[in-house]
Specification:
Elements: E1 5-9, H1 13-25, E2 28-32, E3 46-50, H2 51-60, H3 63-71, E4 74-75, E5 80-84, E6 89-93, E7 100-104, H4 105-114, E8 120-121, E9 126-131, E10 137-141, E11 146-149, E12 151-154, H5 161-166, E13 172-185, E14 203-206, E15 212-218, H6 224-231, E16 243-251, H7 259-264, H8 267-277, H9 283-290, E17 298-305, E18 316-318, H10 321-324, H11 333-352, H12 357-387
Parallel strand pairs: 1-2, 1-12, 2-8, 5-14, 12-18
Antiparallel strand pairs: 3-7, 4-7, 5-6, 9-10, 10-11, 13-16, 13-17, 14-15, 15-16
Length: about 400
């Protein structure tokens, strides 16, 4: 087997982007994912991709798949309008960067998978890892199987098994916010609910108690399956229809139920709860929530990592939410994970060309922790100022 052989745990956008980049670099890689399929659970719907995210995808994906990504992305105006609960415009924020795209999470995942389908094993839940006397790393899975490689990468998200074992001092903190996600299908009837100026990078509508409704569109330039047939015939994309991702965020102490009760509620009950919470808001906002597709509604507790000091590099490393999970308030979480994946693919390409692995990974981690934890801090500051999340705890 060529050196290095890289084991990636997690087939989210970051892990799949890394796998594409490693394949492009000629590096041996295998990806293991605990989910049974790419769409086996709700993980959110809409992602905001900026200059960093697009550059990472251009560097890692085969050109045809990057073209397909752009063909399925909505180009957004570079603004974040902020409304109050009466739908009065309070301010317009201007996110940094020149490029702002809205993409469907499943569509992006299917595009990323198209380049590495043969490298990904689903239904493999990691339980831990060991390092042998030869320095190689063995991942252990709940089904009793193992996989051994020269480098182990944690791309397994905010609940990372690898992070808990490798960096047990790294903390994940509750932001104090609970978010209920839902989709509003864009139809002739619902389109009039959302003025064009509201369909931007992200649009928070903030109520008097600090709770908010967040709005963001996903409008495909052409149906994803048709774009795939035209650009990359090997890619199989689900024909997702245009929609608005419409979420409700609130401080946990304002909810009339516990977290366990919230998680147990079906979509219809979550919609009813949200409508009760915003009973005094502008009727148009209530109508948005009334048009939630109940099958798409689910709750999440918003969490953030707490930045930690640098650690000595080994042949175990991390990317994305496994190391720097962040509040969605800056809209850069996915972009930071994709940036990690591109940078790590380049570093491991240098290993394949003869650079010692620990040296290359130390260089990657020095840069990644600097920009990654800077993004965590910015996201926490935005979330505290705009959405009422808890301040970021001290490290």
């Amino acid at each position: 087997m060529p050196h290095p052989h890289v084991i990636v745990i997690g087939a989210g956008p970051g892990g799949l982007c890394l796998a594409n980049g490693l394949r492009r670099q000629g590096v041996s890689v295998a990806v293991y994912e605990s989910d049974d399929s790419p769409n086996s659970r709700h993980q959110g719907y809409r992602l905001h991709i900026d200059d960093d995210g697009d550059r990472a995808l251009a560097r890692t994906l085969p050109p045809a798949l990057h073209e397909l990504f752009l063909a399925t992305a909505e180009v957004l105006p570079g603004r974040t309008p902020v409304y109050d609960d009466r739908l009065a415009l309070r301010t317009i924020l201007e996110p940094p960067g020149a490029l702002h795209l809205a993409v469907d999470r499943l569509t992006l995942r299917e595009i990323l998978l198209a380049g590495v389908t043969d490298l990904v094993a689903f239904g493999r839940r990691l339980t831990g890892y060991t390092t042998g006397a030869d320095g190689r790393v063995t991942a252990r899975f709940s089904d009793g199987t193992t996989a051994t490689g020269d480098v182990l990468v944690a791309a397994d998200g905010v609940n990372s098994v690898i992070r808990r074992q490798y960096l047990p001092h790294a903390r994940i903190a509750d932001t104090g916010l609970r978010q209920i996600y839902g989709k509003v299908p864009l139809t002739a009837r619902t389109r009039e609910l959302f003025p064009e100026e509201m369909l931007a990078v992200f649009t928070p509508i903030i109520g008097p108690d600090g709770s908010y409704v967040g709005v963001g569109s996903v409008r495909f330039p052409e149906p994803p399956a048709r774009a795939a047939a035209r650009i990359a015939a090997g890619a199989r994309l689900t024909d997702v229809r245009d929609y608005v991702s419409c979420s409700y965020g609130v401080r946990r102490e304002l909810l009339p139920c516990s977290d366990d009760e919230l998680r147990a509620m079906p979509g219809e009950d979550l919609r009813a709860l949200t409508l009760k919470m915003i009973s005094g808001w502008n009727p148009r906002i209530r109508t948005m929530i009334e048009h939630w597709d109940p099958a798409t509604v689910f709750p999440l507790s918003l969490r953030t990592s707490v930045p930690v000091a640098p650690w000595p590099a080994t042949n175990v490393t991390l990317l994305g939410d496994a190391v720097h999970a962040m509040s969605p308030a800056a809209g850069v979480g996915a972009n930071t994970a994709l940036r990690d994946a591109s940078a790590l693919a380049e570093a491991l390409g240098e290993v394949a060309r003869g650079e010692p692995a620990v040296q290359a990974l130390a260089r990657y981690e020095a840069a990644m922790t600097e920009y990654g934890f800077a993004a965590v801090r910015t996201s926490a500051e935005n979330g505290h100022r705009l959405l009422g999340q808890d301040p970021l705890p001290a490290g």
